[in-house]
Specification:
Blueprint lengths: L1 H9 L16 H22 L7 H6 L7 H4 L7 H24 L1 H4 L3 H25 L13 H4 L11 H20 L6 H21 L5 H21 L7
Helix pairs in contact: 1-7, 2-7, 5-7, 5-9, 5-10, 7-9, 7-11, 9-10, 9-11, 10-11
Length: 244
Amino acid sequence: MRPLLLLLFLLPSTLYSRDSSVLQLKLRREMAIYGCSGIAAGSSLLIGRSLTGLTTSQLGALNPYNVPSFDRWSIGNYSHAAAVSSDVLLYGSMLLPEILFLADPATRKSPLKPAIIMSQVFAVNFGLTSLTKELVHRTRPYAYDPLVPTDTRLQRDARRSFFSGHTSASAAMCFGYATIWSSYHPDSRMKPLVWTGAALVPALTGYLRVRAGEHFLSDVLVGYGTGALCGWLVARWHRSKSDK
């Protein structure tokens, strides 16, 4: 919360920075983005307060054959190592863009503007993901597996499978970074490499979430698409008219 408040405090000072020909910030638009994202996230918290975990009878009634065939193969996966690895990729996706912006000569002198835009990418995706999870309440794959500890299967979080927050957040940050980077380097030969990396990191994150038993394939596909779209749209929305 404190980093977000700091960004909001410094926002007016970035409106007239030297790189305005590449990225543009408008106070009303930025406040609207933060406001709508906050409403979505706050609504998800209020809705989630009423969510309870599965009962033992509900757990016993879970039938894998009620799951669509293209998702059914995800049942039976449960790997703590895969879950930890997906966490590492998620946090890396959130931290690495800011490090790269500081290291890039094109953005090093004015890194705050890309940082504000990336914070909006995260906020929009987080609001959409959290609200969807609390409205859908899809049961995670591991809840169907009797070999998974019962205490884990009975937790509230076992009903927040759709859609994958790890995958959507990773895709949002990676695609947001690639879009902003492309705005500063429109003719660079590195663009295919940057965009390939932006596409592969969330794909690997999604794969690990399925291997961990946290999500079905459809969860990570929707999460990937939602995050990628959030990252690309929010970042592109801030490009100047001449750059577009």
